[in-house]
């Protein structure tokens, strides 16, 4: 397997819902393993996600999990998840789903560099950037 770099998101108890939402957005195969699956079935966090992975046929990989018991997710982490490419329909579809029930900080529109770009935060508090490359002139 080739080395790959992909986002790994951490949640405070709603990783299952978030990862299922991202599967609705991007499609693909979602694998979820709970703490209970790994020998912690008799604990209050047994149903929380220890590790989740979404892999799409287009090559996207997104991982996520609930924060380990006894710890909290730091708020205001300096990260965004970026989607970019030239498939207008695909990227607009992702934008519509991600921004629905979330907040838009930069509308998806033409920017000074010629591409369409937007920034939003989804309903789970994850910030996203979408850049649709303009066709070469």
From TrEMBL:
Q: What is this protein called?
A: VOC family protein
Q: Which Pfam families match?
A: Glyoxalase
Coiled-coil positions are none
Provide the transmembrane region boundaries.
none
Q: Which stretches of sequence are listed as region Disordered?
A: 59-82
Which residue ranges does the record assign to the Glyoxalase/fosfomycin resistance/dioxygenase domain?
5-130
Its source organism is: Streptomyces dubilierae
